[in-house]
Amino acid sequence: MADDYYEYDGVESxxxxxxxxxxxxxxxxxxxxxxxxxxxxxxxxxxxxxEVARSAIADGLPGGPMTxxxxxxxxxxxxxxxLPTTSGSxxxxxxxxxxxxxxxxxxxxxxxVAFGRTASPEFGIGPVTEAGANGAPTRxxxxxxxxxxxxxxxxxxxxxxxxxxxxxxxxxxxSVRIPASNCGLVGFKPTRARLPNGPGAGEGWAGxxxxxxxxxxxxxxxxxxxxxxxxxxxxxxxxPPMAEDYATAMxxxxxxxxxxxxxRSFSGDKIDDECRKxxxxxxxxxxxxxxxxxxxxxxxxxxPMMRAWTNIVACGTALGVYAKSKDPSVYEPQxxxxxxxxxxxxxxxSGADYLDAIGVVHAFGRQMARHLADIDVLMTPTLSxxxxxxxxxxxxxxxxxxxxxxxxxxxxxxxxxxxxNASGQPAVSLPLHWTADDLPIGVxxxxxxxxxALLMRLAAQLEDAMPWREKQLSLxxxxxx
Length: 481
Known about the structure:
three-stranded mixed beta sheet, 13 strands, 14% strand
């Protein structure tokens, strides 16, 4: 099993367990062996809890759609008493939550065997995973000189390397979709509030953050979303109910859709030629599938939203820091420069400023809703360029606004993804292109608020028309040799 474990996605692995061809313990052995071999070079896993996984198997796993499949939780969110999270920060070392989060309980009920936590940037703020608390950057298995992305960069690296077939992540500005693009994976951000946040919180970053998954196959994403969707007890609001679940939607054709695409940023800035090529090649495929494809003709005013997004995230970061200490002499020596900048920025944001930022984000959501009223799908590259080199976005810049929106900031690199956290619309990055030197390029799709099923139908059609499985396996085979 250890020799070919990585060949199977989660659905296939669970089927092997169900048929008695392999045990959950043998799958775990294979996953642990691969982690021992590959993690030192990519730094994807920051906490191992083999004994927790062994105990879960010994106690008897629940019968679910992923029973026996090895799994990793991001070191941010999905609180679990047996698998503590540090949120990528020295401030939270040794922190043990008093409860199991609802999403963790649903993942556990699906039969998954969680055995560790994957690297995250401190408090999830960044498109790379290079928190000082992690000891070293998380690197891209396709090329370790490049980043795996962030903030779910550890999850993406572990899945791309074949350590696990799927892993938990979270997305507050592209934090599932950015690493999915960088590592050649599927990264689906559901409609706002489709997945639970409780019981520790009702929402994250004013509703812009949501859990998600990094997977190699679309069907693994569908199964995991179906297993975790729906509000938790006492949720302040929830997404519109879906007429069909994600797995059912995958099996249906999307029909002829009106699809608009961009080969420049929303602000009109030029993007890398490889990203442009990825969109144009996908547009040609979609046209061949019978869709009506044309360049996007609308105008999206995005910079006011990005400034508001930055204010909200700064305040959310300060909340996480202040939960441990409000004394800068205590917390500043323990946090990264970017985090210091966010906390200092938050100190200058009044309650009125914060509420105004939420209003700006909501107004942007209405703007995007109007654009999607005239089309079915908006297509862009996931990022404006191939995966960045490690160190380019190292979290040392203490000017948080510059780090996010400056000339060489995060927004220049990732000008598309945060728009759909602000609007709450479902969006997905699919691995549809690789550069000549084998760096993955994701193509990004978004639909109207609540229309996750349509997005899943289109994604399934593209997985059939532009299959990516063999390309992913080529990396895993190379890492095995």
